[in-house]
Structure formats: C-alpha cells, structure tokens
Amino acid sequence: IGQGKDNARQYLKEHPELAANIEQRIRAAAAGHPLAFAEEVAEPAAVG
Fold first, then answer.
1. Contact 25, 37 (CB under 8 A)
2. pLDDT for 14-38, tens place per residue?
3. Could you tell me which residue ranges the RecA-like C-terminal domain spans (predicted)?
C-alpha cells in the first residue's frame, strides 16, 4: 500500500508545470465547474 506515493510525489516535483495543471483542475472541480476535466475525457480502452 502506498508504494507509488513517493514516486508520484517525486515526479510532480520534477515536473512543476504538470503539478500546477493538476492543482488548477482540482480547484476548478472543487469550485463547482462541471467541465473542469471535460477536455481530457477520453473513451476507455477496450479490455479483452
């Protein structure tokens, strides 16, 4: 449990532009903007 947590934290420290983008999207979603993530929504890949 939590094995990827440290790796994710380090990755975001190394890529501050991505961290800022994620933070902006989280704040927009929390503020009630329903389309905060709409531009990134894609169809899930078929499994099988």
1. yes
2. 999 999 999 999 998 888 866 655 5
3. 1-30
Beta-carbon contacts of 6 under 8 Å, excluding residues fewer than 6 positions away, are none
* Alpha-carbon gap, residue 42 to 6, rounded angstroms: 27
Sequence ranges of the domains in the chain: 1-30
Tokens in use for 45? 């890949």
Please give the structure tokens belonging to residue 40: 């990134």
Read off the amino acid at residue 42: A
Residue 30: C-alpha distances to residues 4, 24, 25, 36, 39 (Å): 25, 10, 9, 9, 17
